[in-house]
Design a protein that fits this description.
This protein is of the alpha+beta class. It contains two helices and six strands, in the order E-E-E-E-H-H-E-E.
Length: about 130
């Protein structure tokens, strides 16, 4: 197999570091294992971030997300771990990870975690007429 899962995240230089802009990445094929039953859990992950000097490289992100497939993890823990790993790798101005897990036993779980650089101030929202 030419590709394999990896915990190694890669970044590249932000082409517009002087500008605040948002990158949104949707990952509809996330899976991990329930630590209690060993059964698979499936989720759609939505990553939103305002980059600073670096952006997350997508192939490395795909391999990183794939690396959880055979690991047991509670939804809350895995969402926060992914956010911590991504924010450590690329040091964004702001990052939010939303994990929407598929139904299991009649229960849906949604977990949202955020990171904000303490030196960054969010721009004022623009309201158009």
């Amino acid at each position: 197999m030419p590709s394999k899962p990896s915990k190694e995240l890669e970044c590249f230089d932000n082409p517009q570091p002087e500008r605040d802009y948002t990158i949104r990445i949707e990952m509809p094929e996330f899976s991990c294992l329930c630590p209690k039953t060993g059964q698979p859990d499936f989720a759609t992950l939505t990553l939103e971030y305002v980059p600073d000097q670096l952006c997350v490289e997508l192939k490395a992100l795909k391999m990183y997300i794939w690396s959880f497939r055979d690991e047991g993890a509670f939804h809350e823990a895995v969402t926060n771990q992914i956010l911590d790993d991504l924010s450590s790798a690329c040091k964004p101005r702001f990052m939010r990870l939303h994990a929407e897990f598929n139904v299991r036993g009649g229960i849906y779980t949604n977990v949202t975690a955020e990171y904000k650089d303490p030196e960054w101030t969010s721009p004022e929202p623009v309201t158009l007429p």
